[in-house]
Design a protein that fits this description.
The chain is of the alpha/beta class. The protein has a single domain, classed as Rossmann fold (3-Layer(aba) Sandwich), CATH 3.40.50. It has 9 helices and 7 strands. It has helices at residues 2-14, 34-39, 66-72, 79-93, 111-117, 121-133, 156-163, 172-178, 194-205; strands at 46-51, 54-63, 103-106, 141-143, 167-169, 182-190, 210-218. The strands form 2 sheets. The chain has a 5-stranded mixed β-sheet with strand order 1-2-7-6-3, with helices on both faces. Strands 4-5 form a two-stranded antiparallel sheet. Helix 7 (156-163) crosses helix 9. The mean pLDDT is 87. Bound molecules: zinc ion. Zinc ion binds next to helix 2.
Length: 219
């Protein structure tokens, strides 16, 4: 608790405390003001079957709409702040059993997209989650193929094809680190779930004990 307080005080020094929903000043350690938080539509956590009697639980804060949608789509200089606010929102509001996990894994970004944007939104979110819940950050995965944006593709099956071979482990050592561990994938938004299914299959093949997903919003 003490650590969390210090962390939030620290992040308040870096990021101005204005509610991204209504621009009202917020003086406590929350990503949105209480009114904007109350206006979020909660989502029910969902399990996706991924074969061989395995499934992944997806924990999300809200539907992909309103202020959360604006934060996910944030452009220019405000992007990093938006990513941190999404991470804090996830850390504070997602109905996730945090104690079950040994580490947090952000959904990787292809380097060409990283180059253009300068950072990985999911990684900033994952760092906020790690700080809040005192969990280690794992970066075992890389995106080897520049995939189309999932939003540009209709249907679950084509989306699975789009990402099926798009990811790999950074190296053998990182792959070994995932064995026997319960890992929590972090991303901004899940729609069809094709991306997280592809990643979860990879992590399970490496011997992960449990893979779940936490996101700010479900599309
Ligand atoms: Zn507000």
């Amino acid at each position: 608790m003490q650590v969390n307080r210090i962390v939030t005080l620290f992040s308040n020094l870096i990021y101005p405390s204005f509610c991204p929903g209504c621009r009202r000043f917020i003086d406590d350690a929350t990503p949105l003001c209480s009114e904007c938080l109350a206006a979020l539509t909660p989502t029910v956590s969902q399990d996706i079957e991924i074969g061989r009697s395995r499934s992944i639980a997806i924990y999300s804060v809200t539907r992909y709409e309103g202020v959360v949608q604006r934060l996910v789509r944030a452009k220019n200089h405000s992007q990093r702040t938006a990513a941190w606010q999404l991470g804090e929102l996830v850390a504070q509001r997602a109905p996730c059993p945090w104690d079950l996990f040994d580490g947090v894994v952000p959904v990787p970004l292809h380097w060409t997209r990283w180059w253009r944007r300068g950072f990985n939104q999911a990684e900033i979110m994952a760092r906020a989650v790690c700080m809040h819940h005192a969990l280690p950050l794992f970066l075992p995965l890389t995106r080897t193929k520049q995939t189309k944006f999932q939003a540009e593709i209709g249907g679950v099956a084509p989306r699975l094809d789009n990402v099926a071979d798009a990811f790999a482990f950074v190296n053998e050592q990182q792959k070994l680190l995932c064995s026997g561990r319960s890992l929590l994938l972090v991303d901004d938004v899940v729609t069809s779930g094709a991306t997280v299914v592809a990643l979860a299959r990879l992590l399970y093949r490496a011997g992960a004990k449990r893979v779940s997903v936490v996101v700010s919003a479900r599309g």
